[in-house]
Amino acid sequence: MKFVAFNVRDDERKYFENWSKENKIEVTLLKEELTSTTIAKAKGYDAVLGFQTGNYPDNLFDELAKFNVKVFSVRNVGVDNVDLETAGKYNITVTNVPAYSPNAIAEFTITQLLQLLRKQNLFRQRMAKQDFRWAPFVGEELGHMTVGVMGTGRIGRAAIQIYKGFGAKVIAYDPFPNPQLEKEGIYVSQEELFKQADVITLHMPATDENYHCINEDSIKLMKDGVYIVNAARGALIDTEALIAALKNGKVKGAALDTYENEAPIFNHDLSGQAINDPMFKELLAMDNVVLSPHIAFYTETAVQNMVEVSLASAKKVVETGTAKTIVQ
Hints:
Shape: globular
Strand order of the largest sheet: 7-6-8-9-10-11
Radius of gyration: 21 Å
Keywords: NAD, Oxidoreductase
Protein name: D-lactate dehydrogenase
Helix content: 25-40%
InterPro entries: D-isomer_2_OHA_DH_cat_dom, D-isomer_DH_CS, D-isomer_DH_CS1, D-isomer_DH_NAD-bd, D-LDH-like, NAD(P)-bd_dom_sf
Mean pLDDT: 96
Domain D-isomer specific 2-hydroxyacid dehydrogenase catalytic: 7-327
Family: Belongs to the D-isomer specific 2-hydroxyacid dehydrogenase family.
CATH class of the largest domain: Alpha Beta
Number of helices: 12
Oligomer: single chain
């Protein structure tokens, strides 16, 4: 049994090497992303492990089928960039890591929101000029707010517990309600969530149904001065509509760890290079936006789990033909 992992970062390497040694399975580690060119390096392996926020090559599963690869295991939750239909056509099993660390992402969203509420962008700018006055940047307290959680899977539920710890009133929307949360009576319709929430935090996968669920029309339903938090998927937000609302004050602030056109930007060193993305540059320059490069997941615990679960899933499928983490 032999595996090959693409787009391996230095922080993942020790976990790959330890697992390979413990399980006596050869795992080849490559720094390159999976592209139409590099995919040839998958020849001779039983399983391929991938991790990239951008698109995988269109011919991914056509080529993996030629190489008799049995498993494609992604080291993350989302599979919206994976052609599951073609994988199924070639009988290639796709697995993911459904819960590498829900707390990592939930904690991060609250951290970013608190920076917005306490005007940290503005204070950092002022202090850089050695101006240490307080006024007029009065902060707001989360415990006095209604937080609308969109998506109540593992991450959404972790976020709900943290928000409750701050004393916030929590309401939620999910097309597939959690039975335990239903008993607590926190579910409302999506429209009601937009109308009632002071903070809207997104914890949903990117699907055709919720593409740009935050858009010009949904923003009109929201309270004046609402805050929006997104550490899920960039495609959930119509960025152009959000920027307009941030400018006119309808949206008071946004904490964004994802961006719909992030693939050529996030996790790349673009020092000294021009960024040819006007919307992104506008977000980056806004005082009422806290922007981060898709790092909500990025903790030691999460990285270890992402590597080990993806490897264990691939091993299980090769040995038995099944695993609990199969998505296709």
